Amino acid sequence: MDTAAESYQQGFHRRWGHLRRARVRALAWLLDAPDLLDAHDPLWAGRVATLDPVTPEVAQWLNRLDHDPSRLDAALGARIYTRLGLYAEKLMAFYFAEHGRLVAHGLQIRASRNDTVGEFDFLLDDGPDGVEHIEFATKFYLLDGEGGQQQEWELSALVGPNLADSLGAKMRKVFERQLNLGEHPAAQALLPRPVARARALVKGWLFYPSGSWPDMRGIAAGHCRGFWCSLDEIDMLAGEEFLILPRLQWLAPFRAASAVWMLSRGQLRAELEANFETSSTPVLVSVVRHLPGQIEEVERGFIVPNDWRERAAARRMVKAVS
Questions:
Q1: In a domain, 298, yes or no
Q2: Which Pfam families does UniProt cross-reference here (predicted)?
């Protein structure tokens, strides 16, 4: 890895460090972050979407929103979000609505009262004769394995922290089922206009077990990335101060005037040891540094229980025989 190159976090702080509100920073990340998937890779057959670069006008809109977030707060409502995917989806719905593209959001399709066929994440204006169906996802996957650059990695090796899914399985579901929803008769009866095209828009972070990462077919070269390591390996982490990131702060790199939950390395270890006594869920940690009047993220990674590799290997064996 070229240590002289600007990290994603450095670039984000440079572009968006003036934004103070967490919701606006998360929205800026959704609009500006590189895609996880390479929309130009033939693997996706033109069915992966990408957002246009953030224009000066959109940047100014975000600045105004940061000064007066009342419209965004009203759109998100008073509910307390526990699902990161739903939170990100609501932020994107607000953006599409504010910029005159949103036709429908979360439109459920039922074949009958008790038979839900599926749901359109977004229907966007695609001209007078059609709409675009966007299936939207924000995902966080860890590369399961530590082979060298010569290994041919597959998307199934990118697994969720809880080992419940993989990027390969997610994209198969999106392509084989969700993007075909517009063809269902029950959907056609509700659509305001025919679906002119259906594509997946995928944002997120990928995490690797060492300081380098392999080229993987279908993955965008400039995607957001971090590390993962086991609890017993945290002494190898660079940095001296850490934050355990709440789930709704997983999107944008952390930056704030203060953070009362800062941890030293010893405190981090103690906190994680206590956590892993009752939970097998990996924990997302931000390595931070102090600047005048600011605390900002330098890098991030998942700390996994010490048996995570063994459980991941067992998962591979099950998948191989099923």
A1: no
A2: DUF1853
